[in-house]
Design goal:
Elements lengths: L8 E8 L7 E8 L11 E4 L2 H6 L3 H11 L6 E5 L6 H5 L6 H19 L9 E6 L1 H12 L6 E5 L5 H9 L7 E7 L5 E3 L2 E3 L1 H14 L3 E7 L5 H16 L6
Parallel strand pairs: 3-4, 3-5, 5-6, 6-7, 7-10
Antiparallel strand pairs: 1-2, 2-4, 8-9
Length: 247
């Protein structure tokens, strides 16, 4: 794709919070070309916001697809994270997990829909996350299926707590996931030990499908890093937002 002749619009906001111990959280927002306050747009909500923008280049990729491939315009809301407490916020059962979910569902979504021309419906909200960011996205969707029913999962870190959370869930026929995992992720070293992400994703997929969720799943050559995930983003976003979207 060639460089876009229309400049990207990215704005930053600090969102106040009564749930997070810091009392606030920074987020960055991509607004599509031709953005108008009186219209309404789908929103891609990203965990690891800074990484999605800087390493995933999601705003650049989305901008070019909207301009050059005639995609419906959409907003990106990317929430930053303090890497020192990322696991505590993202991992099910950890110290800051519940308050992070409350921030997301009770403060972030209302902030976005008050300040931007966001379409206020579950089928117009897409959660996107990599590794533990995918796992916490699943937690959010399980907690509030009225808000979120679509997840873009890049090498999800579906550890035991996430699997238990899935097993405890009821009918998931309202949930749709696009999942990818790299075939070179079979022995990835994390702060929680060495994990086989291929097996983790296969296990999550099996439970999701057994409970009625729609899963568009693939395993490809790739490592647990942004070099792999960035290449997957056009296909992943296209499944939900492109001209031939099927999710």
């Amino acid at each position: 794709m060639s460089d876009s002749p229309v400049r990207r619009t990215v704005v930053k906001h600090v969102i106040p919070s009564n749930y997070l111990s810091s009392g606030e959280r920074s987020a960055r927002f991509y607004l599509p070309p031709g953005y108008q306050e009186w219209l309404s747009y789908p929103v891609v909500y990203c965990q690891d916001g800074e990484d999605f923008f800087n390493f995933g280049r999601i705003a650049t990729i989305s901008h070019q697809l909207i301009l050059e491939e005639s995609w419906e315009p959409f907003i990106i809301a990317a929430v930053d994270v303090d890497k020192s407490v990322r696991t505590e916020e993202y991992l099910t059962g950890s110290a800051r997990h519940e308050t992070y979910l409350s921030f997301w569902t009770e403060e972030l979504v209302p902030f976005v829909e008050k300040n931007f021309a966001a379409r206020p419906s579950a089928d117009a909200r897409l959660l996107a996350g990599d590794s533990l960011g995918a796992a916490v996205s699943l937690s959010i969707a399980l907690r509030r299926p009225d808000l979120f029913g679509r997840i873009l999962s890049l090498s999800g870190a579906y550890y035991g707590a996430s699997i238990a959370e899935l097993k405890a869930a009821g009918d998931l026929s309202g949930l749709s996931l696009w999942m990818t995992v790299g075939l070179q992720e079979t022995a990835y070293e994390t702060e929680r030990g060495v994990h086989n992400f291929v097996e983790l994703n296969r296990a999550a997929r099996q439970i999701l499908e057994s409970k009625g969720a729609y899963v568009d799943y693939r395993e490809k050559d790739g490592e647990h890093k942004w070099g792999f995930w960035q290449k997957e983003l056009p296909e992943a976003l296209g499944a939900f937002l492109g001209p031939r979207a099927h999710m």
